Amino acid sequence: MSVWLVFALLGVGTGSLYAAFAIAIIIVYRGSGVVNFAVGAMAMIPAIVYAELRATGDLVLPVILLPDRYDLGGPWGFWPSACIGLAVGVVFTLVAERLVFRRLRGAPAVTCLVATVGLTVVAQGLMVRAAGAGTRRTPAILPDDVIDVFGRSFPVDRLWITGVVLVLGGGIAAGYRRTRFGIATRAAFLNEKGAILLGLDPRRLGQINWLIATLVAGTTGILASSMGGVSPFNYSLYVVPALAAVLAARLQSVMVAVLAGVGIGMFEAVTVHMVAKGHVPNLLQGGFSSLVPFAVIVVMLIVGGRTLPDRSFVVEPGQRPPAAPPRWWVWWPVVAVMCIMIAVGSSPLRFALLQTLFVSTLLMSVVLVTGFIGQVSLAQLSFAGFAAFMLSRFDGLGFPLAPVTAIVLTTVVGTLVSIPALRVRGVLFAIVSFSVAVVFDEVLYRSPTFVGNGGLARVAEPRLFGVDLGIYAGDDFPSRRFAFLALACCVGCGLVLVGLRRSGLGRRMFAVNSNERAAAASGIDVPGTKVTAAMLASAIAAVAGVMFAYKAVDFTGAGLSAQDGLQLLALAYIGGIGSIGGAVIAGCLAPSALAGYLLTGGGSSIEQYLFTGIALVIVTVAVPGGLAGLPDLLRRVRQQRRSGSLSTTAGG
Amino acid sequence: MALLESRGLTVSYGGLHANDQVDIDITEGKLVGLIGPNGAGKTTFIDAITGFTPLSAGTVTFDGVDLEGKSPDERAHLGLTRTFQSLELFEDLTVRDNLMAAAEKARWNSFITDILMPGRGERAYQQQVDEALDALDLAEHADRLPSDMSHGQRKLIGVARALAARPKLVLLDEPAAGLDTQESQKLGFKLREFLSSGMSLFLIDHDMGLVLNVCDYIYVLDFGRIIAHGTPAEVRKDPTVIAAYLGESAGEAQASAGTALNTATEEQS
Prior knowledge:
- Chain A is mainly alpha-helical.
- Chain A has helices spanning about 1-10, 10-30, 40-55, 80-100, 110-130, 155-180, 180-190, 190-195, 200-225, 240-250, 255-275, 290-305, 330-345, 345-370, 380-395, 400-420, 425-445, 450, 480-500, 505-515, 515-520, 525-550, 560-575, 580-590, 595-600, 605-620, 630-650, and strands spanning about 60, 70, 145-150, 150-155, 455-460, 465, 465-470, 555.
- Chain A has 27 helices and eight strands.
- The longest helix of chain B has 20 residues, at about 250-270.
- In chain B, a hairpin with a 2-residue loop joins strand 9 (about 215-220) and strand 10 (about 225-230).
- The interface of A and B includes residues 518, 522, 523 and 526 of A.
């Protein structure tokens, strides 16, 4: 018994981090209505600046076009380093708030969420450029003695950080209840128009709340850098448990979120102990503890969700349905050019094309869930990964049968996963799907049963009627036969979408996307339509996953993680979420795909990663339809200008 | 037996009875109205009948089928459709597609046939949709988006969408709200026309002129209870109705306005 208690106590340290991030997320949400995925990045920037100042005395800045490293002479002490670190974080947030979130007021919550994803990518890219991707630990800040608990040694700094976060949470909760500023923030959150009429400035309130959140996240980030270390990426992983705590608090109560965060940390530590003790089946050994936040999220959403929004439900402005699919005279030349590339192109060009085809196919499944049915899914890449591993598991069945089995299994899993998510929509759906991706990432891709020895999976080359269709067939790598096969799969998925868009099912999906209540009243089976969409989307994702496996031959979970899923969604938005053309454009822009090869000679780099983030932020703010929506946007602007000039001449 | 019967229908939110023991019969081929002041529970009644709000007690039978446990879409398939006070159109679909989405009956295998042969099987519904468009003079706007149209036209799209599936009974939630007197009169004529094509209608509205003029039978709801019912002439004279709803003097003025309108429309036709 006491052993479990010790492990639970060990978890309060991590739990406090979740709690602090949860506080920051709630503050930003109440202040500006944005569900902030970037909270990890907001903690990471001050922490890395602080760590660099402590270690080398160099000031590193998250900037482009300017030098990002300044020698301030000699390692610095705690207070100056921490203050400079927080100041850098505050400036970064101010700039982001001013350039991005202020312009997104009134935009769909999901668009704001995607913008914070973009911001995360930008912050990570900038800090990797400035300070490198490594993890650094800083000297202890809080007392770090070791005390004796039930005969086991216990680092006391865990309790200290919990105390700090509890005090912080209590202070903030009281501040928002008592002070004029806190009451004004709540008023503006509940009724923005009313607040403006009372003489409050919601934009200013939002800005101050962003600053408070940055200080909370930054302080915790600096403290945590002395315990587990900080890298440009590790804090972003705490966002999922933090979101679980935020949902447990129904996006409202700071204190409930703090307690939930600490509780989740304790449960995770206990599950780690369970794995070590062998209480957990082999299948789940990989990352059993990551199931805790997932379970919290799912239970909270299902308990709190409704199958149909009721009369008081504020309809979030949804995703626009996809524009008409490109005309045949755009469509077929693209396919023809790809055929020519395969037939006469060089080996690196063909390889880049294969990457484009894989990403395009995968994004077609995103188009289906996001563009057609209006749910932003971050889990599609995970379904592709599932299919890839299933293919390697059932490879013995031979070519047509093994991929078909993998696709069918993935479709079943994707459909099952979609059923609990029926009760959630909008930004909450994005959160659920991201936590699904994390579970796939942590549990399945590291499970010895599922992935095989050492996490390395392998597939044999596809062979039909004795003809080798694999990527190594013939002496010219990658083989042309395989490339044509991949092209055929991609075009096939595209045709399914085109057909769907014209069909009654597509119309029902748009109707559900547009207004669920009205759809139900019109005799459309809303849950059934959503499940059908999820089923088709996971089937298309599975096709992409099979493509991935045959392309790589030997592969691990690398490139299939939840973080990669975020970058994929970023690409989808840049290309134009919800349009088939957008999926293809995004496929060209993906790392080591066509655009990269043609422009820079191939390869992927941190610059590309950073560029993706910046482009994503610009697209969410300025071009909601993505690159594929540009012609439409330009046409509308031109029309407006023409009608504007007409009305002025009429007026004159 | 009436087409739709509610018996002891009660909807409670906490301790508040939004609908309390409501018994209503909607006879086939008739236009039945429900009136009552704001907050009387009129929309709650439609929500309860169409499956958007769970019943706390009571039963609803439609066309001989007990509706308990049926989802809104299943009720729509039985031939029970509705409009919304707040319209709730599919803003991103053209007017025709708004109606098509409601007219088409999906089967379990539709997604396969839809993907393999898109557009097949649509023809059967095209005619139904064209009829509904014609009935509300929307044919020339069929390819526009609802968001580009006037409020009056948008109201008509909502009605057309409820008609597109050829239902047996349409529940109309304040179809005349926000229309001017002339548009409201025109809508009244249309509603009477639909009755002659074998459909039954149930109407909630604030426009007393419209309700008293076009309905065959009227129920009066106040604080969730039915306080009176009868033909328009009976309801207009009922002292409880005058006291509770129409008000002593204002009500008389409105009622006489209704009578004036009545004669005016009679003259017109």
